[in-house]
């Protein structure tokens, strides 16, 4: 049997931009992606603490040490600059592996989205 488990979570980052005219995705500071073990193109669940929206898109890397968190395309309508988000990725694994798996949990600086 396989189960979905949390692979990584970036907890409480602020939206720095929303670009409706971009093709789609969420741009995430490459340093945050690396620390959370998120790869380019990976599906990301986005939970907006300000308005309760939950959506999924895919990750693209932003400039390192920028703190960038930008929602692109239609997802830009679901956020406002300054909204606080939780970003979550999941992995499928067999149940025995899942029992011992430890996700990457990040708690960046809430003012600038940078790693502490």
Task: Walk me through this protein's architecture.
The chain is mainly beta. The chain has a single domain (2-104), classed as Barwin-like endoglucanases. The protein has two helices and eight strands. It has helices at residues 30-36, 95-100, and strands at 2-14, 17-19, 25-29, 43-48, 54-62, 69-72, 84-94, 104-106. An eight-stranded mixed sheet has the order 2-6-3-5-4-7-1-8. The N and C termini lie far apart (38 Å). The model has no long low-confidence stretch (mean pLDDT 97). Its main location: cytoplasm. It is found in: Cytoplasm. This is Aspartate 1-decarboxylase. Keywords: Autocatalytic cleavage, Cytoplasm, Decarboxylase, Lyase, Pantothenate biosynthesis, Pyruvate, Schiff base, Zymogen. One of its GO terms (biological process) is alanine biosynthetic process.
Number of helices: 2
Mean pLDDT: 97
Low-confidence stretches: none
Number of domains: 1
List the keywords.
47% strand, globular, 8 strands, cytoplasm, single chain, 8-stranded mixed beta sheet, mainly beta, 116 residues, Barwin-like endoglucanases, pyruvate, 2 helices
Could you write a compact summary of the structure shown?
With 116 residues, the chain is mainly β. The protein is 11% helix and 47% strand.
Helix and strand topology:
Blueprint: E1 2-14, E2 17-19, E3 25-29, H1 30-36, E4 43-48, E5 54-62, E6 69-72, E7 84-94, H2 95-100, E8 104-106
Parallel strand pairs: 1-8, 2-6, 3-5
Antiparallel strand pairs: 1-7, 3-6, 4-5, 4-7
